[in-house]
Amino acid sequence: MRPSAIQLLNILVPVKRSVDFAVKIRVNPQQTGIDTNVKHSMNPFDEIAVEEAVRLREKLKADVKLIKAITIGPPKASDTLRTALAMGADSAIHVEVPESSASPEPLAVAKTLRAVIDKHNASAKEAGDKFDLIILGKQAIDDDLGVTGQMLAGLLGWSQATFASKVEVDVGKNEAVVTREIDGGAEEVRCRLPLVVTTDLRLNEPRYASLPNIMKAKKKPIEKLSPADLGLDYTPQLETLKVSEPPKRVGGGKVASVDELLAKLKEAGIEAA
Length: 273
Fold this sequence. Notes:
Blueprint: E1 9-14, E2 17-19, E3 40-42, H1 44-60, E4 64-73, H2 78-87, E5 91-96, H3 106-123, E6 133-137, H4 148-156, E7 159-170, E8 175-182, E9 185-192, E10 195-199, H5 211-217, E11 222-225, H6 258-267
Parallel strand pairs: 1-4, 1-6, 4-5, 5-11, 6-10, 7-10
Antiparallel strand pairs: 2-3, 7-8, 8-9
Helix pairs in contact: 2-5, 3-4
């Protein structure tokens, strides 16, 4: 356990600029991916992560020293960071990539986060300056892969608690109790810090940033980095051959009897059991 004089929590919150949840997704004409020339906003699960970090500070007060947001994306992704800053983050890091670049794959994202964390922790003057808690969305709504948090925990060798619906941190005991969403309902896990948490929908309801906080966010610092600064290469390991829309659903029909139903199934090539 860390000495009591430096029992301070530093939280890193990765956020992603993704297609807005209200936009109807369409495949681009080249069939290489989705059409991204639409409205973007912060990934909803990441909004929940930022909200949870802010709520932890409101609850733990002086025990939380820093909340830092981080994103990987084109120059426009800085707007997503400003949203996080307006919600309550203290500062941010923008790992900037060209506008034309594809979103980095989850493993590349996890390696980027690990590099940033290692760099920050190596330069920390005392234990109370190191990142102890990483909170991020369980998945991004554009690719729905849901593996970045798990990969990051594996790379760091940290505890992990995924699909969190409740998070309680005891800084003095250097541990957290996390309630997780599982198929059978919920389970409670007790984890040692440092810890990676991924957020589920039931964890909280994100706040709207007030106008004063939006104005204050413009003055909060955003550190600019590039993949090269971290010694990383975002060359994709996977190749997308083709993306196509699912076939349009055909309306159903009514039948007057079981015999007519069986006849229709037989016409469709479906044999009754």
